[in-house]
Amino acid sequence: MISFNKIILLAGSLSLLNNCALLPENKIPAKLLDMPSLSESLKSDAQAEKIVREWPKAQWWQDFHNAELNRLIETALKDSPSLRAAAARLTQAEAVADYQAADMLPSINAGIEFHQRRFSETDFYGPNGGKTFTGAYIDPAVFRYHLDLWGKDKAALESALGKEKAQASELAMARLMLSTAIARSYIRLCSSEEDIELAHGLTEQAEKKMQLAELRWQRGLISQDWVYVGKQQLEAARQRETRMHNQAQLLRNRLAVLVGQGPDWGKTIHIAENKVAGHLPQPESIALGLLAHRPDVAAALWRVEASAQLIKVAKANFYPDVNLVGFAGLRSLNLKDLFLSNGASAAYGMGPTITLPIFEGGRLEAELKNQQAAYDAAVESYNETLLVAVQQVADSLAEWRQTLEHDAAQERALEAANAEATLAEKRYQAGLSSRDGIIDAEAALIQQRLTASELRTAHLLAAVGLIEALGGGYENTT
Fold first, then answer.
1. What's the whole-number mean pLDDT along residues 154-176?
2. What structural domains and CATH numbers belong to the chain?
3. What pTM does this model have?
4. Region for residue 271 given its phi and psi (left: phi exceeds 0; alpha: psi -120 to 50; beta: otherwise)
């Protein structure tokens, strides 16, 4: 039997015969971008410096303290078809990695072959020429082990593991995108329901003003033009209220689909006040944070690693391939002699089988070129993903800070509108102004409340956008 050292020596000699110089010259691969600087973008005012320096939690939506939002997202994470599809793709990637790992282990099989053969009279079969035999090969143990001399199997396994981790990161990204989409739609739905009530108040004020104009016209105090103006304003207010009702219904339908339910399920969604306790978290180290906490960046980086390993596989194909093969069993040309020959039918063997890629018609070079191009594409995809991620963080942070400033300004405007409405009521009670002043002041106050609602919604949406840009609690520990 050939020893293992002899096998290695033989494989090494054959690799020299194959001449490794046939490998194409190494091309210059694409390079991964360094983390772009965000030092200027992260400079914050006194308000932003109070931010807690920790990442969003994995269940970040609980910081909104809204039981209905919690219910929607948790239902979606269980019932969404898109998440189930992403989970199935992850299971596929895990199965491929398991298969690749199993391929590195020795295999032992059993084989049974029954045959009837006629040997040619004009070949070298001697006295058996021209005869027909019914025989069998029974091998209860067929051993096979691939000697991974060039690291091909290991590289293939590392590539499969990289793809598995990339798929896991993409599942996390799908969860993040789904949960933030639900949060945005629910925030808009709550805002729409609030705006419907305020819009109804504007409709009532427009109706009061039109009734007042009709009364004055009937008494000859004003021309009919003012009545027509009042009717136009009333119908415009009614149209606005109708549009808001329709928008709310569309948001309910969208939420139902996102959660993985039918449209009628949207009618069961309850409306609750939205609020965020305290300030949103911001990473202490944005460079390390984006690499560890952005699932799309992590997925792109794992795909780069998987592509790099496939280049190793393509290069290993240029070298001799060595398999250690063995068998033990019974073999006989005559079936009747298989078990009645006192051990004469016993057969066994063990030895290496070596294949040499002498001429492949350019297939090996083409495969290597293909894998190198795939690596370059994966690197550039990572670079683009990283740049987009950095931009999203900078944009989301700027938008979130802006909404804080707008909210503060709107609170002052709302206080002024409330004071104006109170003053208009006092003037009317004192006989210093007509009822128009009260109606206009009330309408202005409602309009300011609508603006405040819009700005609060913008702030909450900016909060969700910032959480999404920071990875939403995802953590790539590797």
1. 92
2. 23-104+150-320+362-469 (1.20.1600.10)
3. 0.76
4. beta
